[in-house]
Amino acid sequence: MRSFILGVDIGTTSVKVVLLEKSSKAIVESQVLPTKSDIADGTRETNVKEQDPARIIGALNQCMSQLSYDKLQHVCGIGVSGQMHGVLFWKGCNWTSDDYFNAEDCSQLITWQDGRCSSSFLSSLPKPNSHLSVASGFGCATIFWYMEHRSEFLKDFTVAGTIQDYVVSMLCGLEDCLMTPQNAASWGFFNCSSHQWNTDVLKAAGFPLRLLPRCVPSGGLAGHTCSNWHGIPTGTPVAAALGDLQCAVYSCLSAQTDAVINISTSAQLAFTMPGDFKPADSPEPASTISYFPYFNSSYLAVAASLNGGNVLAAFVSMLSSWILELDAGVALDECSVYEKLNCSAESQNDSDLTVTPTILGERHAPLSLGHVTNISTSNLSLGHVFRAICRGVLDNLSSMMPAMQLRQGGVRRIVGSGSALLRNAVLRQEVEKVYSLPVVYGQDADAAVGVAMVLCDRL
Fold first, then answer.
1. Is 268:417 a contact under the CB 8 Å cutoff?
2. Distance between CA atoms of 176 and 168, rounded to whole angstroms?
3. How far apart are CA 385 and CA 175, in angstroms?
4. E strands within 72-118?
5. How does DSSP classify residue 232?
6. Could you tell me which of 391, 389, 399, 402 has the C-alpha nearest to residue 435?
7. Lowest mean pLDDT among 84-88, 139-143, 181-185, 324-328
8. How confident is the model at residue 307 (pLDDT cuts 50, 70, 90)?
9. How much is the pTM?
10. Any residues with CB less than 8 A from the CB of 354 and at least 6 apart, and which?
């Protein structure tokens, strides 16, 4: 009888679930749905980026309900990955046999895009005992912000973790939160060499240590399902949650000489470091490259840009709002806008318009903003502008990790992944121009597939 591994990825804009046949690792079913979970900024703070966990869990349950019940009955393991850096607070485990998740006991999810921690606030934090810097949107930085601005808020909760850690905790009925180094490193104040939180540093700063998750190895189990879930039997092994970046890389990295470029909401370019590589002892805030924990004590060299598909989405949204203002009542479907923009830009092979699309800043340069230069009467068509934006996304990424650095790292091929890249022929053309390396595109190169593959390899 066939058995299956369930892979779940809780992304910034969507939830995806896949079923892999354990013996062949073949994808037999998959479902994906947008979460539509973004919460509009309130008037309390600026640059707030929060999501409603109830909508995220609702999308997850809807995805699960669309998978074959008979296959779910033969799931022998569950892997979960998700958006890194963010933080969710909850009040221990409080589920019933009818519904694992009780959103009334949760805070909103403060995401990796959150910008409430200003540069001056971040500079006031203690220096981490880690090779990774701390940025706005990182879990520990967000908790420090609440300590200073809304300390009463933290008293309402007993547990904190990423949204994917929350899902694992609920599935297993855990009273605490288990977190892998992949997610812990993305929170800040975590030493990747010792696999320990900077408890001495945090305690001295008055940090609520009770909220720190307990660390377990990446690829290890967190527990077992404590009740039947959409047909998946009670007692099914559940792996500790992993980072979506690492799982996306795992899904499509077939050789040590490959690099992976992923452009979805944001953009990342990554390749594996040699097994004996050890990062520096202290943060390098101005560095455009970060070294994130991967598997088996190895590291990924990562250029992680905040500006990817979200830049294209902002442009499309701007166009749609302009059209609506100019002709009241005319509302265009954004999918059709994307299609028309792609067609216009494909017919425009090049453009001398220059767009620097860093409208969200970058972690190494948080005050950086976008700008447009070399404007003329001949380069303002939609084809010119969209082509220049796509090239700008790649130029920005290559300024963080140049082609020369890839070659020095032994990279001979780039594997392209991510929804924005796979759906956008113009972005793909610009990848190939900027990096001048062979590029292959894998439709199944995603975190949901990757987290299922990780569990397949370990069960």
1. no
2. 11
3. 52
4. 75-82, 88-90, 109-110
5. B
6. 402
7. 324-328
8. very high
9. 0.84
10. 372, 373, 374, 388, 392
